[in-house]
C-alpha cells in the first residue's frame, strides 16, 4: 500500500503510507476480534452475523463511490456542460501523469469538494456549484489538485474501509437493543441471560466504535495535510491553495448552521469541514486539521519553493 500511485507524479508520503498500514492492521485485527466476540455472544445467530458483516463490507467497498455521490446529491457532468472544470482536471491529470477520474458536480451552495472511489478506475472528483461560483481559476486548480492527490495516495479507499467498522458496530448495537427490547422468552432465566448478552454486545460494540472512530479521525487529519502538501508541490502555487482554503472556510462559516449540519456526516470526505472544531477537545475529534495549521504548512512550502 503506497501513499502515491506508482504511475503518478504526486510526491510520495511515507508518513501517510505508514499511518494507513497501521490503521488498516489495527482495524483488521479489531474486526476479527469483533466478529469472533459476536459469534460467541450471539451463539446460534452467528451465520447471520457473518452474512450481515460480509454483505455490508462488500456493499460499502464496491459501491462506496455511488453511495457517496447519491448521498451528497452529485451528478456526473460532461466537458460540454462544465468546460473549465474538465479542462483544469485534464491539465492536472496530465501534469500528475494519472488517469482522469469521473467528474461530478453537486447543486449545493456550500463551497466544497470531495473525492471518492475504491481505486483510480472508479474514482470521482466532485465540486459543489457554490465552490465554482466563488473561486478564481488558480484557486480551483489548487482544490482539484488536493482532491486528485487523495485518489493518487489511495487514502480514499482506506478511509472507506476504515469507516466501515464503526458503521457496523453501530448497526450491531441497534440490532442488539432491538432484540433485547422485542425478543426473549418469558422465563426469568432466559430473560437474565438475554440481558447479560445484550449488555456484552453493546459493550463490545461501543469499544469497537470508539477505537475505530479515533483511528479514522487521526488518519483523516493527517491525510488532509498530506493532500495539501502534494497539491502545493504539484502545482507550484501553495499561495493559491492557501487562498482557496481561507475563502472556502470563511464562506462556509457564513452559511446557516442548520444547513451545515445536514452535510456534517460527510466531513471526512470534504476539502474543508462543514462545521469546524473550535475547542481543543473538539479538535481531537475533528476530521480536519485547523485552518491555521494548514495555512502554516503551506506557508513553509511557499518559502521552500521561493528558495
TrEMBL record:
Cofactor annotation: Zn(2+)
GO molecular function, one term: metalloendopeptidase activity
Compartment(s) where it occurs, according to its Swiss-Prot or TrEMBL record: Cell membrane
One GO BP annotation of this record: proteolysis
Domain of life of the organism encoding this protein: Bacteria
Chief place where the protein resides: membrane
Binding note for cofactor: Binds 1 zinc ion per subunit.
Chain positions recorded as Zn(2+) binding sites: 146, 150, 224
Family under the similarity heading: Belongs to the peptidase M48B family.
Protein known as: Protease HtpX homolog
Organism field: Streptomyces tateyamensis
Organism lineage: Bacteria, Bacillati, Actinomycetota, Actinomycetes, Kitasatosporales
